Amino acid sequence: MFLVLFICFSLESHVSFGADTISSNQSISGNLAVVSAGGVFQLGFFRPGKSSNYYIGIWYKRVSQLTTVWVANREKPIRDIYSSVLKISDGNLILFNESRVPIWSTNVRSTNSSSVVALLLDDGNLVLRDGPNSTKIFWQSFDHPTDTWLPGSKLRLDKRTNQSQSFTSWKSLDDPAPAMFPYFEHTNDEDGTFFPTCVARQVNEGADVLKLLDSRLNGNANLEELSRLCKVACWCIQDDEIQRPSMGQVVQILEGFLDVSLPPIPRFLQAFNNDQERIFFFIDSPLSVSAKAEAML
Predict the structure, then answer these.
(1) What's the pLDDT at 32?
(2) I want to staple 81 with a disulfide (CB 3.0 to 4.6 A). Which of 45, 58, 66, 253 is the partner?
(3) Which residues, 6+ apart, have CB-to-CB distance to 74 below 8 Å?
(4) CA neighbor of 242 nearest in space, from 292, 293, 297, 296
């Protein structure tokens, strides 16, 4: 009997406490987890890849391989899930590490901290709201995406903080910390823009491509090289294969031996003007030009 129990607890399985809600008198630690009402998503501690670190995340419950869609403490992992706890405190959902130091929080001001609950919905959205039956939402994970877009979520500009939302990939399979480049970025409108579309627009409109850089680089990049890189990237994703450069041509362009013209925005990213003239791939090239140099949309 002891051996059976030992084996069961040695496996990193998660135990649901039979609810989709974390209230003021409940918390998550160890292998406890919250499961959405329809059993679609699960919230709890997980360990990515071969890492020894743990994170609070949301993943698909019915998928055998761990597939996370959201991570709370991306840059602040914990080591001991049994001494750490995720709970409602002072009207917020807060993650405390092994030393009982808060390392992640929803960080909002609620009107009635005693009634606040965190609810995991079947669309993968984790919401903090004023009571289990209330429609008033103080915070939701859909407004704080990590690396995955889920149906129903929408990128917005947080007018309170003037911060734009973006999807950012993990550094590696073992580290969910944000990598350098986002998948999506918010533009001046209320809709999110797929990052390749944003790049294509910037290049075609002659805008400042330095704005495409991750803010953590502080604009530290060669403008000419960046512009060349963006152009060739846009040519590489053209709808028609004949318009895409070969690997040899890509190398020549990136090294500055071959000039490249402004590419059109691919149709699968954004509808391009139907009355466009003939498009020339290479311009003013001192080298030979292949049959791909000239194509029609």
Answers:
(1) 93
(2) 45
(3) 55, 146, 176, 177, 178
(4) 292
